[in-house]
Amino acid sequence: MTDLDDGNTITYDGVPYQYNGENRLTAVQALTPAENDTRVTFIYDFLGRRVKKSVSVWNSGKWNKETEKLFIYNGWNLIREITVENGKTTEKAYLWGLDISRSLHGAGGIGGLLAIYDHSTSEIYYFLYDAKENVSQLINSETIEIVAHYEYDAFGNIIFSYGTYADENPFRWSTKYYDAETGLYYYGKRYYSPSMGRWASRDPIEEEDGQNLYVMLRNNPVNHWDFIGLLVFGAYDIDSKNLVITDEDTHETIVLCAESGGNPFGAPIPEGKYEILERVGRSEFYRLDAIDSTPRNDTHEPTKRTKFRLHKPGRTIGCIAASKDCKNCWENVVKLINSTFDFNNCSLSPCSLTN
Asked: Which domain holds residue 303?
């Protein structure tokens, strides 16, 4: 049984969930605890990154803290985890490489976690992945022994696992941190429940990615990824020739001079809303696909014009092209878009065009 309040799951299987004013999960605990019940609490930093997790157990009429974890990040990638348990402190260090966006942070680290160094045992373990960048195995760097093996169903539930380190390693499905105490995956912006097959809270971008605010990747996580939920919004004014790109999460904004049409010929891009999608095979080119009755067919249905692009300085016969005088600004726009980019075209990035 699941109950919702303000768009957030407040109970699941009888266990209450608590949130702060920013709709971030802060506690999972029973309101009238019984002996040996568990309480899990979370604290976040100014960027919304989870920096602390505490686990307590109800004994003798009070909550007794058993473990406390502190998290240190590089961007959104966890690089160090410090655990305090029964007065003893242990550490894990995580080494990241390029994720599926071919950058360190562009895809939220999916497929980019290379190794873990466990200070308590002085062991290094290497991560191996399946075709969907789910962690499938961990290998001991010295003995080459498989210390953890995981198999998942379509929605991230672990259906089979084994290995001496399988329970200890927290990174699993979609290279995300798994909280065994709650059964939730931490995605940065919100939590995903594999047992529910959906998000525990509503989508922070509201209906931009569809009317269902809880569905995981349009109910098709086998063929798509979700990174950390960030969105870029673009607005282009044809008269002023200003393109404004804004990161909806950090509110970073870039204003770029850009042209559309007439260089060397052609009418400007029609007014409307477009998705910013990948243009495979061409660096610094993005598809602008009209949000209309036939989405993602690279055609503006009312005019039947095709192949609109947002791209680096150059000629335009209807695309939006950065002006030659704004090369530095364009480089910043590329970084901003790529930092939220979904290479399977499942994350909607609206671009509004006005006259």
From this structure: 232-341
Average of per-residue pLDDT across 344-348: 36
Q: What is the pTM of this model?
A: 0.64
3-state SS track over the chain: CEEEECCEEEEECCEEEEECCCCCEEEECCCCCCCCCEEEEEEECCCCCEEEEEEEEEECCEEEEEEEEEEEEECCEEEEEEEEECCEEEEEEEEECCCCCCCCCCCCCCCCEEEEEECCCCEEEEEEECCCCCEEEEEECCCCCEEEEEEECCCCCEEEEECCCCCCCCECHHHCEEECCCCEEECCCCEEECCCCEECECCCCHHHHCCCCCECHHHCCCCCCCCCCCCEEEEEECCCCEEEEEECCCCCEEEEEEEECCECCCCCCCCEEEEEEECCCCCCEEEEEECCCCCCCCEECCCCEECCEEECCCCECCCEEECHHHHHHHHHHHHHHHCCCCCCCCCCCEEEEEC
- Report the percentage of the chain scoring pLDDT > 90: 37
Residues 74 and 184 in one domain: yes
- Total domains in the fold of the chain: 2
Pair (204, 333) in one structural domain: no
Residues 213 and 242 reside in one and the same domain:
no
